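Hey L., structure's done. Input below.
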Amino acid sequence: MNTKRFGPDDVVPAAEIIRGGGLLGIPTETVYGLGANGLDPEAVANIFAAKGRPHAVRSLRLRGWSGTAGISRMRPMPSQTASGPGRSL
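Output:
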């Protein structure tokens, strides 16, 4: 495992890790999460392997509803809201 601490100015190298199929530990307001390219099946499998969990429920975070084109038939409903900082959908 190669561990590196990133700061707010390290978006480019963090994005390169995600694009390359790697995992990132991401702090949130309450817990740390593991991030990967959710459209890369191997990267997603690596999250479950790292956590020692079976492939089950997972969430996919997108920049906005336009990011769902080609991967979902879901449509936003007026009452839907996002959680966490930057709540715009």
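The mean pLDDT is 77. The radius of gyration is 14 Å.

-- N.
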